[in-house]
């Protein structure tokens, strides 16, 4: 397969390039990674559409199989969040559920064979298609910045405007005026570190995993032995990702819940 | 890897999905789970209550059964006593009746035997007289010798 490309690095680079549309001739910020957006939105529609279809037929009596599945999912998220947040957790659980389901689905795009997708899209004239939206920093940053937006919103809501401003300047070191700038710098670092760590953790895991998948796919260029060996390696790596895919989604969900729980804490 | 407008689009999509989940997807399920949880808790509490009342009912039933048993035994004893006394009474009554019958029969027998003796005496006297007449070959005037006959009768 790699024969169509001049070098292995070109093969990998090609498969990791987004399909882009420039909304402004200068490009730069005004580019849209169409593949990320479309995959993410379609997966969201499928996932939440499915859950919504279950939710509409929900019964308090004996649940059907679909409802039982949804209930297990909900209870799982609910149990995790109960441990970190003691207030009314309806919104956080819903948010956690949304985050978990969407990220799991986006990560699960890894399971699709990389080269089949690339060749398939090439057949219909689409030159690039990066299948995993979470291997795109834009997606993970969008998620984490939204979460931090919610954290700031809940901080204001829980502590009031004055309370939150007071916290920004008077923690962690104390309310002595000379300490205000240091406190504020620390708070700012925290506010930046939170979304960055969230986004980069997910992005890094998914991107690296994707590269490994591509490297394994490259083995197929080394003849029939390479195909067999590559297939085995691919199967192994994919099985490993049965763990990684939901784990990363779970970590993202838990950290989201923890950050929002922290926003409700008073110092 | 450039940060582009994709980020804004994804954030918008995320916001819409969060809104959708919070507003439409999760609440019915959460309500259903909560309601069922309450129903199960209520059911368990009811069962617990039922169990407790069953124990109480069992105790009551045991007490009532014991009382009934005691009463039944009492009644049986009473009936036994009654029966015995009735049997005694009818026995003595029967004996009395038998004695009476026996006495009556005895009286009749006595009467009859007295009567038979009288008759026998009369006949014997007649026979004696007839015998004497034949022996003496003469008529004896019964009126004259009535004293003698009466004396004979008395001897018989």
Concise structural overview:
In chain A, 73% of the residues lie in helices and 2% in strands. With 267 residues, chain A is mainly α.
How would you describe this structure to a colleague?
The complex is a heterodimer of chains A (267) and B (156). Chain A contains 8 helices and 2 strands. With 267 residues, chain A is mainly alpha-helical. Chain A has one domain (2-264). Helix content of chain A is 73%, strand content 2%. The longest helix of chain A is centred in the last third of the chain and has 42 residues, at 223-264. Chain A starts with 7 loop residues before the first helix and ends with a helix. In chain A, strand 1 (20-22) and strand 2 form a beta hairpin. Chain A has helices at residues 8-15, 34-56, 65-84, 90-108, 114-123, 137-170, 180-218, 223-264; strands at residues 20-22, 31-33. Chain A has a two-stranded antiparallel sheet with strand order 1-2. With 156 residues, chain B is mainly α. Chain B has one domain (7-155). Helix content of chain B is 90%, strand content 0%. Chain B has 2 helices and no strands. Chain B starts with 5 loop residues before the first helix and ends with a helix. At the A-B interface, strand 2, helix 2, helix 3, helix 4 and helix 6 of A face helix 1 of B.
